[in-house]
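Treating backbone geometry as a discrete language has practical consequences that deserve illustration. The amino acid sequence and the backbone structure tokens for this protein are reproduced below.
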Amino acid sequence: MSAQGYEVGPIRPPSEANSLLVRVTRNCPWNKCKFCNLYKGERFGTRSFQEIKADIDNISLIYGENVPASAEKNCQTKTRPKPLTL
């Protein structure tokens, strides 16, 4: 878990710097690019349901209805989605 209270991946383009992403995998599934050494020696894997659910719960506690403007702007729906019930 990071300082934000939920896990964030290490690579984010500047245009997504303030967007909310829920990380469901770790590392790279391809890991063969000649130009990238970021994940060398790291195994690709998925996070457990419990880890993902904990991140969603923490994001909800942190932001509640106060979704960052960039996340709201990038949302494809006109109305706020209903809370996820698992």
